[in-house]
Write a structure and sequence with these properties.
- The chain is 50% helix and 12% strand.
- The longest helix is centred in the middle third of the chain and has 23 residues.
- With 341 residues, the protein is an alpha/beta fold.
- Helix 9 packs antiparallel against helix 10 and helix 11 crosses helix 12.
- The chain is globular and about 55 Å long.
- The N and C termini lie far apart (49 Å).
């Protein structure tokens, strides 16, 4: 059945953009926020100045501070809160759900206990509901200006894939489908780490060759890790993998890139995060992925180097230099037979 009503849980930049697209497409949409003043601003002036300054929102987009009001009767519920809050927020509304309501994560992060992705948290809390993940090269401020963009929606439920594509696609935002839920979601979480590394590189004034090397080796590292966790390596050649990696590693609009840039300029991690004023998921993701890689003996020199820079005070130049002396010498991770690598 087509999506006719929707709730977006979280009124940050991307949650607001998703809500606005849905409203533009004629879907009855409620945006849930914790902040009453922000909800009133959206309802009265059709702006969310904190996260999308200067952007006029669709007048039909409603804001509410009541979770029950937002989720009750919604065909699709988009979860767009920071990863550390997903379990708490979903646990507080799952009692009002019915089995036909779909849950869609737009959060690119990892829960450290058990190394769980957000779709796994949703499935654990709401085992009877269809689950999906939205991920791709989607800088919210650009989408809000209706600049052309595309994303990937992954779900094992083919009806949900089709309905979601119909609900979100428009003349400036295209939705592609995938059934590799884990690969799409993991690529969205992992690329935040490498955006931080790319920020270091840019701040230090390294050349274009160095930037290209960092991005390409990041992709190899991401896919190596993801395949060890059961994902399809081909997913990383698409929008959720290389597409999202490129945009977050090259754009000053990327929060994680900006954190890395500030550290490359000599600021501490705390100063960089305070300066940003928003959640940079890559900082926590770096901690969790480093621990998992060490536990599973996965070769990830960029992750290990970035960790030493953020939490050990190492020189960011060492991260790039380490690639020149690393153990692995094959280019495309899965192209050579194992005995030739």
């Amino acid at each position: 059945m087509a999506i006719q009503t929707a709730a977006v849980i979280g009124g940050g930049s991307f949650g607001t953009v998703i809500g606005n697209i849905l409203a533009d497409n004629g879907i009855d949409t409620t945006l849930w926020l914790r902040n009453e003043d922000a909800a009133r601003e959206i309802n009265d002036t059709h702006h969310n100045e904190q996260y999308l300054p200067g952007v006029k929102l669709n007048p039909e987009l409603k804001a509410s501070v009541s979770l029950q009001q937002a989720v009750t009767g919604a065909d699709a519920i988009f979860v767009s809160v920071p990863s550390k809050s997903v379990r708490e927020v979903v646990a507080s509304f799952h009692q009002w759900l019915t089995p036909e309501q779909a849950l869609i994560s737009t959060t690119k992060g990892i829960e450290p206990e058990g190394f769980k992705l957000m779709s796994q948290v949703l499935s654990e809390l709401c085992p009877d509901n269809p689950i999906g993940v939205l991920s791709g090269p989607n800088l919210a401020k650009e989408i809000a200006k209706r600049e052309l963009a595309a994303t990937v929606f992954a779900s094992e439920n083919s009806d949900l894939r089709r309905n979601l594509q119909q609900a979100l696609s428009c003349d400036y935002f295209r939705v592609y489908a995938s059934n590799d839920l884990y690969g799409v979601e993991l690529s969205g979480a992992l690329k935040n780490i490498y955006a931080i590394v790319s920020g270091f590189v840019a701040a230090l004034g390294m050349g274009e060759n160095t930037k290209a090397m960092i991005i390409t080796r990041s992709l190899a590292e991401m896919s190596r890790f993801a395949v060890s966790q059961g994902a399809n390596p081909l997913t990383f050649l698409g929008l959720a993998g290389v597409g999202d990696l490129v945009v977050t590693c090259m754009s000053p609009l990327s929060r994680n890139y900006r954190v890395g840039y500030a550290i490359g300029e000599g600021k501490t991690l705390d100063q960089a995060v305070d300066e940003l004023g928003e959640v940079a998921e890559g900082v926590n993701t770096l901690r969790y992925v480093r621990a998992k890689a060490a536990e599973s003996s996965i070769y990830m020199p960029l992750v290990m180097g970035a960790y030493e820079v953020l939490f050990g005070g190492a020189d960011p130049r060492v991260v790039a230099q380490g690639l020149m002396t690393g153990d692995h010498a094959s280019d495309v991770e899965f192209a050579l037979p194992r005995h030739e690598i």
